[in-house]
Every structure is written in structure tokens, then in C-alpha cells.
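Hey, can you fold this one?
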Amino acid sequence: MNQVLRFFSAVILAGLLLKWAAYAETPHSTLPLSQLEQRLTEIDARLSQLANYSLGGGIGAIGYRSEPHETPDHPEWIEIDFGKTVPLDEVMLVPAIRRDAANEFEADAFPGVFRLIAGTDADRKGRVVAEYNTRNDGILPRIAPFAIPCNGITASWIRVEAEQLSRRAVDQRYVFQLSEILAFSGQENVALRQLVKTSSNVASPSGAWDQRFVVDGFVPYLMDAAEGGQSVAYLARIGIQEHPVLTIDLGRDHPISGIHLHAPEQSDTLPQAYTGDMGIPKHMRIEGANQSDFSDAVTLLDLHHETLYDSGPIIMWPFPETSCRYIRLSVIDPPLPFGNELPLFGFTEIEVFSRGQNVALHKTVSSSITTTRKIRRTSSLTDGRNMYGNVLPIRDWLNQLALRHQLETERPRVVDELNKRYARQKANLNRMIWLAALLATAVGFTILIDHILRQRQVSRIRERFAADLHDELGANLHAIGLLGDLAKDAVDSPDILMETVDEIRALTERSGSAARHCADMQQADIYGKLPEDMRRCARRIMADLEYDISIEGEDVLEKLKPRIKADLFLFYKESLVNISRHSEATAVRIHLTAGPKKINLTISDNGHGLEGDVPSSLKRRAHLLGGRVTSSISESGGTCISLKFRPRRGLNFRKI
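Sure. Predicted structure:
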């Protein structure tokens, strides 16, 4: 059951890699803001669940390096024979990692253009599984492993062909180098310690580079899972001539085919206090048996640790599948002593694999070492944890690192796009604030203008109201007074008296109507035809005076709006009243000329003339008409009042 769960977890993780890769390829500028924010939340949540990059230190094998070249166009290749035909699910390429001058880590001489080819013994040509261009496909920069899905194709060998090489940092020459190649069939790395062929191979003087190191299982990372509690390694002091034994009871027999020995943490100080092979025996034999006394023991591995390049954070070894219940690790040649102290022996974790599943998890471990020299408990050897957290299946661990790389590469792009969106939102908000402020200012300004216009309108209404009261009612009262005088003189002439009384009665009714409408003379049309009203008014006010009235353009006058006719008539009436009251004239000449562009009214008398300027009542009425009033001496020596104004089409004329 656990094996099935592990298989499906690997499939799900591989699917997540494809999903996140598809997300990363989606242009973030096309996503709505809500999806971008959700995407950032998803990335952060997923990153908190993934293994971290913890790079290994100390001395050890690095990986494979080809011969150097002066130009990039030198094909190089690595071929790995699995020794059996398997369904291939995934291939991992682990880059060689180098620290640059800025103390940043980066892949060194990862191939620029390469392909993965897989085949069987019967098909030595193979078929291309995938092709990549690191520049176009966005593979670099990276320190994470690069996962190539193989979708379960049948293969017994793979070949990585580099068509275009990259520069190595040390001398800028072109090489092909990798730290490790892992090929997974389910959870099993079928490339582990298998036969390797290469187009060229450069073994460095230090011994850190060689083609065999590309499948030795050593990667430049320490397993640092995001979940699980910490656990310390099992360690014990052993004598120089002592050969300790660790025994694991698997509970029942299992067909086992591999073992992982996790080296102890070397130190929590920088630099580390111990060499990279602390606690690892120089020679160790691993046996399997179904009897607890190992009477039927079978040697599974005979491990010789000759140099530091034979050890690493996780020592992985495959062996032919063997059915057994008990596993025994016997130290043939103990580790070297550390200074004057006895040698240390131990591991952080021991994993024993049966078809991809660790069957040693939480199983009982016994040790031949006396209790007094045990520094830590043997139960920590199979608790499934290291000093960082849970011990993960190798494929899951490397996939988590690959997914972390994708998410950490995508996250700055999402943040950058979000910042752009927020900046645009802020700019739009600022524009809206300024627009609102401008609109508020415009509204305020409009209210102020409206207030001023209303005040001006109130002032004009008051002015017109005063003018109407003065000019209409005052003139009518003066006319009534004159008619009263005529009535007294005609007391002995009944016919004349009755006519005069009728005029007084009509003028009284007219005054009442004018009083009712003087508050809004704009809409009042209390007059008949303007020329007839002007003649009738002259006859009433100039009753005992000689007068002459002439009017030109009567048709134009009839087209004037009622308010304009009223203002013109009241100006005319006020002028006659002033002559009647103050001029002591005996003769009056009235001449009105009306045209579509200009109206002139001239009223002259033979009186004693004006004392001072034009009366204010006439100025006020001329102002309401939008015209100009002047006074001069008439030909007969009296006063000549002249009104001129231009009627505005659409404003002063009625629509016929």
C-alpha cells in the first residue's frame, strides 16, 4: 500500500510540475488582478511546503566534465546503460554548481542546446524524448535539478547529447558538465552506479571529476524537507580494533534491492569541525538473512571507502534483488580516529528499499557496541527523519527542488506585474481624486456663478419692479390727474364730461392690471398694438398741448416681444409725463423709427430745457432695453430726448 501511495505521490508531483510550468508560461499581463493576487498566495503557500536548497559542504565528488573547447559547437554526450529494460518515468539532470564573485550560486557549464535520447538493447539508435535550448526555454539561471518527463517509455539506456556547449566560469572555455543524472522508474533510480560511456572524459587532478561520478548518487544538496521534526544521528565511540555490528529486523522477509546510508551531520559550525566522512567505516559489509543468527547470510554489498570521493550526504547503493528479513552492517575496517579520541561510527538514517519502498522505516535496530560508548540512540537510525525534518524519497525531494525553482522564478514576475497594476490603480485613483476635486471646484464655481446671476437677476427684478411702478403707475396717476382737471372744466358739457370720465375709468383699470403684472412684465402682454397705444397715450397726457407723432416700421414693432414693447412704451410714456410736468412746453414732436437692426425714438419739445442730465428713470428704462439715451437742445430751444437700441434677433423678437 505504501509503495502505491509513493508512486501516486510521485505522479501527482510530476503533474504539479507541469501545471506550475503552464502557469509560468501564461502571460501575467493577461490575468485579472484577482487571479494575480490569488496566484501569489498560491505560490507562497506552495513554497512553504517544499524542500529547501541546502547546499552540501566539505570535500567530495563533483560529477562529470568533458574535454574543454575554444568554441561551443563541439558535440559531447553521456550514455548510461541501466542493465535492464524498464518503463522510464522521469530523468533528472543535476547541474554542477559554482559560487561566483558576488557569493551567489549558479549552474556552471550547463549545456546550451541538448536532447535526451532513450532506447533499448534492440534499438541502439533510440528516439528523442525531449530537446531544449536553455536560452529560449528559460532553463537558466538555476541551481535546482532539471526534470525531463518520459511518460513511461520503455528503455534500457539513455543518452544526453549536448549540441552546443556553455562556458565554464574558471577559464571561460566550453565544456559539458553535470553533477548527477538520475533516471526514475517509479521511485527507483535505475541509473544509480550503472555503466557510463562518454564522448570524452577529464578526470581532474584532485579526483573530483570523472564520468563515474555522474551516477554515484551524490548530489550537491542536503535533504532539507519543509515538514517533519528534527532527529539527530546515531553515533558511538569504537575501539581501534573493534568491529561493531548493526542489525535491522524488517519484521518479515522482503525482496530488497538497495540501501541508502545517510551520513551524520558533520558540524553545526562554519567551517565544519569534521571531515566529510565522519563516522563512515573504511570497509563495511552488508548482509541479508532470513534467520536471526545469520546462518543463511548472503552478502549484499562489500563497501570500501577508500577516499573522500566515496562518501557524501547520502550513500546510495543498488544490489541484486534478494529476499531477506534481517540486515546486518558489519564494520571490517573502522573509521580513522579524530585526534586523540576514539573513532566515531554512525549514521543519520538507514533506508532499505523493496521495490521503491523503505521497509526499514520504524523497524528495530540493535548494536553490538556497549551502551556506555553510545552517544545517541539506535532508534534514530530508522525514525524517517534527519537533522532538518522528514527523509523524503529521492525522486520526490528532487521534484520539490525543481518545483521550488519554477515558483521562485515566477514569483518576482507576479510581484512585478502586481506592482504595475497597483501603480496603475494608484495613478487612476489620483486622477479620480484630482477629477473629483476639479469637479467639486467646478460645482462650487457654478454655484457661485449661479448665486451671482441670481443676485443680478434679483437686482434687475428690483430695478424693473421699481421702474415699472414709477413709469407705469406714476404716469397713469399723472394722466388721471390731468383727466380730472379736464373733467372739472367740462362740468357744463355732459358729453365731454362723460368721455373724460370713461377715459379715467379705463386708465384706472389699466393701472390695476399693470399693478398686478408689474412683478413680471416679461410675460405680461397688457398692451394692444404699440403704435395705437403710443397715440392714445399722447392724446391723454398731451391733452392741452400741441403734439405731432410719426411712426415708421410698425410691422417691426409688432414682432417685438411683449417685454420689449412694454419697456419702449414705458420709456415713451415717462418722457411725455416729464414734459407735461416740468417743461412748460406748448408743442411736442415725437418720431419713432423701427428697423430689424436698429430702433430710434426721438421726443423734442419747446420748453425751457433740462436742468442737469437725463432723468434717472429714463436711464433705468434705457438700461433695461440695452440701449443708450441722450439729451440735447431741440431746434425750438427746448429739450430733445433720443433713445437708440439694437433689437437682438431671437431675444427681442417673437417667433411668428
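The helical segments are 2-25, 33-47, 394-489, 494-517, 530-541, 554-558, 562-583, 616-625. Let me know if you want another pass with a different chain boundary.
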